[in-house]
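Tutorial handout. Part one gives the primary structure; part two gives the three-dimensional structure as tokens.
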Amino acid sequence: MKRLLLFVLLSISLNTAFPQMMVVYGIRNNGKEMPNDSIVIYTMKESLRITKPMLKKEQQYIDFKSGQTIQFLENSENGYFAFRKTYETKFHEIAHDYSEILGYPCMKTTLNIRSNKVEVFYTDMAENYGAPLLYLAEIPGLVLKVIRNDSYEIYAKKIINSEGFINEALIPTSNITELSEGEFQQKLIESRYKTFEIFRNENLNFNNDHLSDFTKDVIRTAKGSVVIKKVNLPNLTENTIVIAEVTVRSNGDAYDRTGSVFAIPITGMRNFIEAFKEGIDALPKYKNDNEGIVLTEDYEPPLELIRFMTSFGTGSFGKDIKIGGLEWKDSIVYRLDITDISLRG
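Part two.
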């Protein structure tokens, strides 16, 4: 009797010696391994952290005690913006598919999430709960494989139990600013971009008496109808997305006019600046008619990024016209993906 009791206690001790767990997941897309894409989770009884290469400023946690998923975003004050969402553990219908993954017997359930079929393989025999995706926090077990629409697969490659992972899953508790879901998503999207503001509130209008001053930081030229500014932008990589944006507001002009956002490369060759300084005839001609539009041995033409039409008096005349149920726009925003143009330039 004493031997049996000792054996039972020893088994319990072995199973709970390392309450912290790390699970490494691989990813396949249409059967092709994605070697540069992976997910690692650190999980213990109280909480879990999801880490991915793409999560540079964001941290994702599941708080099992409060029943919440938590997203943190680093801010400029050495703290975090946070969004918390309550979830409930749900016992979904189990399919008759009992696969074994990394030695754990698994159950399979199928979810429908935003018109996507998501097959989830999980075990309730592991020491801790956990999942590689926040929206699977409701699954009552450790998720070891996820298949979305029969083509995209996240699968557990390795499980390590160690007491050394305890700090990896601890949820931050200080210097936190709580946000709503909408506010957090806005901050999250903004964090993925670096914004370079070139101009702000520049007034463009034709003035026959205007004289250009090329010594200023912002140069108004072409009788006041063009503004130019020299800027240095970082080198681009193939994974960079470049968005150009211009906001247009009327200051009293009721007519529609053509506008253009363009870049003048500074490479040591002659460029379009000469036209503003010396006149359009200073530029090389194409077929003796069109000036400054073709690359030559010593001249590089400007690169147009956005062409647009100014809107009819937006921001000026609307405030004088009242119509029930209609709110006039204060300005018009033109936004365009110029990645291909930027990389080529």
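Part three, for discussion. The chain is about 10% helix and 35% strand. The first helix runs from residue 2 to 15.
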